Amino acid sequence: MKIVNKNGRKPNLARYRKVLEAKAEEVRRSMSAQKAAQVVARLDVPSDEGDLSQQHHEEWIFLNRNTIDMKLLREVSDALLRIGHDHYGICLECDEPISAKRLEAVPWARYCVTCQERIAARIADGEVVDQYQDADR
Which of residues 83 and 35 earns the better pLDDT score? Predict the structure, then answer.
């Protein structure tokens, strides 16, 4: 399927590629900075239970941030692959073009707004869906 927007033209893939590559680099830098801060903040031997509790809490926060960042990085990488395979900007659910407005807001979007809302509703209803489907909500 050819990628076209409402006026029949292809989206500016070079610009989207540049935006996505910049986002990937930003996420990688953030992850590196978080990891460095975690290592620096860690006490070799906590002096009491309060310090140990604080250390465990900070590790939990770090792991959650890292998980979110990894998921975003995976989404951005997948979007770059879709550009390379000439599938970028096409909804993976309905095969219709994703609006330029949505791609401006979420360049790594996999789904059009309508399909994303349906997927979000299924998730809210407790339905198990593919792990990537809720990433660009």
Answer: 83
- CATH class, 13-124 region: mainly alpha
Q: Where are the domains of the chain?
A: 13-124
Average pLDDT over the chain, rounded to an integer? 79
Name the strand (E) or helix (H) holding 83.
helix 49-84
pTM > 0.70: yes or no? no
Residue 90's SS3 state is: strand
- The DSSP 8-state label assigned to residue 96 in this structure reads P
Residues in the chain: 137
Is residue 60 packed enough to be buried (19+ CB in 10 Å), middle (13-18) or exposed (0-12)?
A: exposed
* Single-letter amino acid, residue 47: S
Give the three-class secondary structure for 125.
coil
